[in-house]
Design a protein that fits this description.
Immunoglobulin-like; alpha+beta; 44 strands; 7-stranded antiparallel sheet; binds alpha-D-glucopyranose; globular; about 25% helix
Length: about 725
């Protein structure tokens, strides 16, 4: 084992020669440290590595990106193994992402990133409450150990993996999706209804329904005739269509993607070197070998045809990869089942029979029977899928992202994907997969957002309202209240479930949801600024309270999160709750956000640090403004592109002075990477009994600014400033 150290004190540990993940893009200068004692206890045996650390009684463990359970991961076992499992029940150990970064806070603060392509298991105080035991299914890996504050540890890590994916600004608008918008007429009706109901919306998704028999890069002529002009018509209304692309390519003579893939040996192979056969939506499929650079280029270019038709983004799905069954697995299962015909099955045989069928999907034996021709710097490497499983979805999305760059290197394209690895955060955002319309999954969403920020997945969000199951109006509203702050705000649901577009509920609910979406649009400039700054400064967009507050209570808060530099959110996540308890680590100002139309001096209440019970009617959510911080709203419009700086509202809790940098840029190009952007610095200073705002801006269209500033005695000062200038 070699241990190196950077000048910032990051310890870099190299064990053998790992399969490259291309996750770390900014490698600091490291120097070898001779005779450095290993960190934790590391044991290698039978091709596995076990790495253990002791935990102190009060240590908390945050991180692991997209995974189950609470903010503090202590007390359970988790896996990094991209899994297609729609039932996110508490006994599950993994979800769709593999994110090997966590931070321990307590007696000593430290963080660890394990750069590895295969499975990693984390027993975080489950077998032994005082031990964190990591099992790496391999002996070749890199690891990075960080020390410092929560903030400095996460910053150092994010600096290593480089900036996260930035979508076009319209992606901060509301997005409507459902698996079963079966044809162009239905999609148009959805678009029309948003406009007739006066509900803001920027994008409508096309799920697998738009394809011709679930074939990637095809469009059903029957259901979506004249696709190009359909895209154009919606675009003229400033609405984007976002089509889905699945990992599996249908096996079908005459289908060009399949034929070319076979001819050029672009598919993942089986033990005999033949394209591996599995089944997903279209029946039999082959999986493109995304770990191969030629395959990535080929697949990435396949997106171009739809880009030429005016499509501006996609979602990549089923890329864990999800396997309903493999040909081999199905044959074996059928043989077993047939052999039981006419038998008197006892409990064991019956369960075996059941398991044979239930175990067909995503079987490890299938993953172990798949082979890649991985492109590495030192040439092509034949690798077993199991050992690089977590890189598959990542590289599918990388193929798309690189394809978009070749199409137009200066334009931002929308990209969302399901399976992920930390290395993918630079290429795409993620949604959190097939959740359910369960209150537990709203809570999981709240708890997952901070760990996703830690892992660099800033552009993310859940299927708002829940994908599986039937959503109640109440759950829809409460979920919308939280998703108002997640960069991805997408209402998505599964075929066969209760419809959950805003107008599918009663009139009162429709009004609440409309107001909520209008609030989202009023917040877009602020959310976008927070997002871009979190990306550039490597700060957390969502964070546990302990990110900013050092008291022991803050370490344990599981259902309140910090958003950006100035807010704390305390969402209602329980059925029938007309309020909730909150813990305030310091004095804050509460905005019971229900609408942005009716703000007045009574809308804001200063609250003392400590514990409180907060009544929150169904249309109210708790948004707290932290001391000496500002929140900025604009006037809502029905599209992101229509938002302006004509009339801004600044809300602040200011004892003496507060400053806010309202970042902005063109929202469509990559010019921001060269530092080309607008900055508006708002500074509110207390002058005796009143406040003064000063504005330093490069925005020429800045209009009037209205201020609600709450002072330390809780008095709201309502001020107006013409043209934003004193
Ligand atoms: C997967 C996706 C889901 C999609 C469905 C049909 O379950 O996660 O979002 O609607 O496939 O394509």
């Amino acid at each position: 084992m070699k241990i190196f150290e950077s000048k910032d004190g990051i310890n870099y540990i190299r064990r053998g020669q790992m399969i490259p993940t291309e996750t770390v893009v900014n490698m600091p200068d490291f120097h070898l440290i001779e005779n450095r004692k290993a960190i934790g206890t590391l044991i290698e045996s039978k091709g596995l590595t076990e790495w253990s650390f002791s935990l102190s009684a009060n240590d908390v463990v945050y991180g692991l990106g997209q995974n189950m359970r609470g903010l503090n991961k202590r007390g359970f076992v988790y896996e990094s193994f991209c899994s297609d499992d729609p039932n996110h029940t508490p006994d599950k150990r993994s979800l769709y992402g593999a994110h090997n970064f966590f931070v321990v806070l307590g007696e000593e603060n430290w963080g660890l990133y394990i750069d590895f392509a295969g499975k990693v298991t984390y027993d975080i105080g489950f077998e032994d409450k005082n031990q964190l035991k990591i099992t790496i299914e391999g002996v070749d890996f890199d690891a990075y150990v960080f020390k410092g504050t929560f903030e400095s540890i996460t910053k150092q890590f994010r600096a290593l993996i480089g900036p996260s994916y930035v979508p076009p600004k319209w992606a901060f608008g509301y997005q409507q999706s459902r698996w079963s918008y079966e044809d162009a007429t239905v999609v148009k009706e959805i678009a029309d209804r948003f406009d007739s109901e006066d509900i803001p919306c920027d994008a409508i998704y096309l799920d697998i329904d738009y394809m011709e028999r679930f074939k990637d890069f095809t469009i059903s002529d029957e259901r979506f005739p004249e696709f190009k002009s359909f895209v154009k018509d919606l675009k003229a209304r400033d609405l984007k269509l976002v089509p889905i692309i699945d990992a599996g390519v249908k096996v079908e003579e005459g289908y060009s993607v399949y034929e070319e893939g076979v001819e050029k040996h672009y598919f993942v192979t089986d033990d005999k070197g033949k394209p591996f056969s599995a089944a997903v939506w279209p029946g039999k499929v082959h999986f493109p070998d995304f770990l191969n650079a030629d395959v990535r280029e080929w697949f990435g270019n396949a997106y171009h045809e739809m880009l030429e038709m005016g499509i501006e983004g996609f979602w990549n799905d089923m890329n864990e990869p999800a396997i309903f069954y493999s040909e081999k697995g199905l044959n074996e299962a059928i043989a077993f089942v047939s052999a039981q015909a006419g038998q008197n099955l006892d409990i064991y045989t019956f369960f075996t029979l059941k398991d044979k069928i239930m175990g067909l999907s995503n079987a490890l034996s299938d993953y172990k029977a798949m082979w890649h021709r991985m492109t590495t710097r030192s040439g092509e490497l034949k690798v077993n899928h199991y050992d690089v499983h977590n890189l598959y979805g990542y590289n599918m999305t990388r193929a798309a992202a690189e394809g978009f760059k070749r199409f137009d290197s200066d334009r931002r394209f929308f990209m969302l994907t399901r399976a992920s690895h930390i290395g993918m955060a630079k290429h795409s955002g993620i949604w959190t997969g097939d959740n359910h319309s369960w209150w537990e999954h709203l809570k999981l969403n709240v708890q997952m957002m901070p760990s996703l920020s830690m892992a660099g997945f800033l552009y993310s969000g859940a299927d708002t309202g829940g994908f599986g199951g039937n959503v109640s109006a109440e759950l829809m509203v409460r979920w919308m209240q939280f998703s108002t702050f997640t960069p991805l705000l997408r209402n998505h649901s599964a075929m066969g479930t209760r419809r959950q577009e805003p107008w599918q509920f009663d009139q009162a609910t429709l009004k609440i949801i409309r107001d909520q979406i209008r609030m989202r649009y009023a917040l877009v400039p602020y959310l976008y600024a927070e997002f871009m700054k979190a990306n550039q400064d490597q700060t957390l967009l969502f964070a546990p309270l302990a990110y900013a507050y050092g008291d022991s209570r803050s370490l344990l808060v599981e259902d309140q999160v910090l958003f950006g530099e100035g807010l704390m959110l305390a969402p209602v996540i329980e059925q029938n709750a007309l309020g909730r308890y909150v813990y305030l680590p310091e004095d804050m100002v509460l905005w019971k956000a229900s609408s942005v139309e009716n703000l007045n001096q009574e809308s804001f209440v200063k609250m003392e640090h400590g514990d409180h019970y907060l009544p929150l009617a169904i249309n109210e959510s708790a948004v707290f403004i932290r001391k000496n911080h500002l929140l900025v709203l604009t006037e809502p419009r029905n599209r992101v592109s229509k938002l302006s700086y004509d009339h801004l509202t600044v809300i602040g809790y200011v004892e003496d002075e507060a400053t806010y940098d309202l970042y902005d840029d063109d929202g469509v190009t990559n010019q921001f990477e060269k530092g080309i952007h607008h900055k508006t610095r708002l500074t509110v200073v207390r002058v005796g009994e009143t406040y003064r705002l000063s504005v330093d801006t490069t925005v020429t269209t800045l209009g009037n600014i209205e201020l609600y500033i709450i002072d330390k005695n809780g008095k709201t000062h309502h001020l107006k400033q013409e043209k934003g200038v004193l």
